[in-house]
Amino acid sequence: MNAPRTRVQRRPVHGVLLLDKPLGLSSNDALQKVKWLLRAEKAGHTGTLDPLATGVLPLCFGAATKFSQLQLDAPKTYEAVARLGVVTSTGDAEGEVVRECAVDASMLTPDRLADVQRRFTGPISQVPPMHSALKKDGKALYEYARAGIEIERPARNVQIYALNVALAPDGQAQPALKLIVTCSKGTYIRTLGEDIGAALGCGAHLTSLRRIDTGGLGIARCVTLPALEAMDEAQRLACLLPAESLLADHLPVTLGSEDAARFLSGVRRRGQWPDARAVAVFGQAPRALLGVAHTVAGELIPDRLLSPIEIQQILQSTPGPVAAGIMETL
């Protein structure tokens, strides 16, 4: 007879954990594992990373979940390896081989690769792959693909901010390219690899994909799942970044106690602020993130606010004494 499972006592946890997602694990499975390790009450990720991809997956907890959408829209950087001469049904190594083509070494000269690099940098058009999570009539495209049904997909415009195309290091079984891509939301790197292979006349599919940055949050700051599992609870909590780490491109505005309390009640404030679409608003004493806003004609207009209890929990979990200030006026 199996022993009863121990019920995990959940608790409020606030912040962002940068996980180096392992190969083969879905983003949601990774989120649930880390949520369980932290015993967190509320959690969410900032957009899925394919199970066959590894790398930066920001996981948001508590108050930080209010700003997860910002990372969905942020530019992302990937490293990928595209094997040339083989086209698969899915655009990656998981699919069935549908076509093979001899690779002519003359196609892989520095000038030819530089030409392809220029061609696929900037605004480009992509047809989303059938093996994707895009929805058609309430069903994901990959569900149709698994049933052998091809759905017409309109091309979408995406932006490739930076692209480096080079021959992969020696030791590859077949000729391959290493791609380093910084791109906009909605870009399919598998499709990019296939399109580059088609432009070279031999086809290609991805054999590896790793996200190394999203919105300025880089792989060097990530923690792996095995490392997290080996830590004690205090060490795991120490891995959390504050919620404002998601707001690096926001204009910071600091309010005094009275203005901070009114702002938290949803009341607009007036001041000598330039017009800005994205503002991170802080209380002064103690310094605490209150929410995000935008400014128009010197008016600070709340967009998304933390609750007083969230702010209090964050301050109480922060090392050092909690100074008197905005919490006294709430």
Give structural notes.
By secondary structure, the protein is of the alpha+beta class. It is built from ten helices and 19 strands. The protein has helices at residues 27-38, 68-72, 110-119, 141-146, 189-199, 225-230, 233-238, 257-264, 308-317, 326-329, and strands at residues 15-21, 43-45, 54-61, 76-84, 86-88, 97-100, 122-126, 135-136, 139-140, 156-167, 176-183, 204-214, 217-218, 223-224, 251-255, 269-270, 276-284, 287-296, 299-305. The strands form four sheets. Strands 1, 2, 3, 4, 7, 10, 11, 12, 13 and 14 form a ten-stranded mixed sheet that branches. A hairpin with an 8-residue loop joins strand 10 and strand 11 (176-183). The chain starts with 14 loop residues before the first strand and ends with a helix.
Estimate what percentage of residues fall within beta strands.
25-35%
Secondary-structure-derived class:
alpha+beta
Q: Please tally the β strands and state the result.
A: 19
How many helices? Answer: 10
Model regions low in confidence, pLDDT < 50 over at least 5 residues: 321-330
* Major beta sheet summary: 10 strands, mixed
Overall helicity: 10-25%
Rg, Å, rounded: 23 Å
Element order: H for helix, E for strand: EHEEHEEEHEEEHEEHEEEHHEHEEEEHH
Large-scale geometry: globular
What is the residue-mean pLDDT, rounded to a whole number? 89
Task: Tell me the span between the first and last alpha carbons.
Answer: 53 Å
